[in-house]
Amino acid sequence: MITLFGQSYDWNAPEVLIPAGIVLAVLGVLLLILRASGRSARAAEPLLREMGWLGQRVQALGDGQERLAGGLHHVSEVQAHSQTAMLQLMEQRLAEVQRHMGESLQGTATRTARSLGELQQRLETIDKAQANIEKLSGNVLNLQDILANKQARGAFGEIQLNDIVQKALPADAYSMQATLSNGKRADCLIHLPNPPGPIVIDAKFPLEAYEALRRAETPRQAQEAATLLRTAVRAHIKAISEKYILDGETADGALMFLPSEAVYAELHANFPEVVREGFTARVWIVSPTTCMATLNTMRAVLKDARMREQAGAIRSTLRQLHRDVELVVERVDKLSTHFNQARADLDGISTAAERAGKRAARLDNFDFEELAPNDPAPLLGPRAAE
Question: With contact defined as beta carbons under 8 Å apart, do 371 and 378 qualify?
């Protein structure tokens, strides 16, 4: 018996057998289908594997395509960046070239302007030199006019002598146009100490005789001009010796100043006997150059004489200086003694302060509660007598 839906049926009843047969048939069909499906699955496995491999290849191709697309994109970006960098570099190079060209053009313009300025300055210098030459030509003509006149020529020699003496000597060492006791006026009187004493310098300029000698074209003219020059110089030597060498008043000699190096050289080269006659007459001929050298020697003599005059004052000053140094040494010794005493006092004060600090610390450490109320002596401790 079998119960279905609340009703009981026999196993061999048609109501049970028919459905059971249908179920068995369905199960058989299912089994057949399952078997066919198994065989189909086994037969499709190679195809599935091939399709899987093809899928993988398709996937790999897709990935490769994506990578290729990324690479192409990167290449395009790099190419664009390179083009941009190249354009920027070209722009920079072009800007530098333009700047260099601008600086070069500016430098060229500056150098050209500077060269033109220098050329203008040189032209101005040439113009000034030309003006100076013209002025000098006028001065030469004026000098010729001055030298042609004896009085003007004498003044010219005196002015040149005055200029040389001013450069060589102090103002109180000479007198210009000094009058001597015989009434004669010297062009310059140098105040040298005795010996040798004051010495006179007189300016002479035998220009006519020298010019005649220079212009001589024949031996006779040269001889006549030489005789004229010799006579003029001897006359000047004699006049200076008689007028400006005074016993007891001036030095035992005088100087004859020739304001021309050419005349001086001519005398020493071709008229040595005249120069020796001057030595005999104690008149020494000098030119502007030798006069400056002689005056510098006189300056040294004056300096030495003044040093001798001041020797006593210098010795007195040195004695005073020595005494001042001794006083300074004494005061330094006293000051050192004061410093030593002050140092000792400071050491004593430091020792006393240290001792007082120790006593104050000892007082601070006392226990007042342990002391007897009527026994104040221990407040000072066992060393109260210190």
Answer: yes
| Last residue of one domain, picked from the residues 277, 302, 317 | 317
Backbone angles phi, psi at 188, to 5 degrees: -150, 135
The C-alpha angle with vertex 242 and arms to 236 and 248, in degrees rounded to 5, equals 135
Report the distance separating Cα 102 and Cα 110, nearest Å: 12
pLDDT along the chain (386 residues), means of 10: 56 60 68 67 65 72 72 76 81 81 79 81 80 61 45 62 87 88 89 86 79 83 87 90 88 88 87 91 90 88 77 76 81 80 80 77 60 48 42
Would you call 255 helix, strand, or coil by DSSP? strand
Q: What was the pLDDT predicted at 383?
A: 44
Cα separation, 147 vs 153, in Å, equals: 5
How many structural domains comprise the chain?
2
Question: Within its chain, how far is the Cα of 383 from the centroid?
Answer: 75
Residue 58 is assigned to a structural domain of this protein = no
Q: What gap in Å lies between CA 144 and CA 322, rounded to an integer?
A: 64
Does any domain span residue 97? no
**Quick check: is 262 in a domain?**
yes
Measure Cα distances from 237 to 174, 227, 274 in Å: 22, 15, 9
What pLDDT is recorded for position 377?
A: 47
C-alpha distances (whole Å) from 28 to each of 15, 35, 37, 39, 42 are: 20, 10, 14, 17, 21
Residue 272 lies in a domain: yes
- Domain containing 304 — which CATH number? 3.40.1350
Q: What is the pLDDT of residue 143?
A: 43
Measured CA to CA, the distance from residue 103 to residue 280 in angstroms comes to 80
**Cα(279)–Cα(237) distance, integer angstroms:** 10
What residue numbers bound the domain in which 36 lies?
Answer: 1-41
Q: Characterize the bridge pairing of strands 185-190 and 254-257.
A: unpaired
Given this model, what pLDDT does residue 141 score? 38
Q: What is the pLDDT of residue 273?
A: 92
pTM, full prediction: 0.42
Q: Which of 317, 345, 361 is the last residue of a domain?
A: 317
The helix (run of H) or strand (run of E) holding residue 352 is: helix 311-364
The per-residue pLDDT for 254 is 92
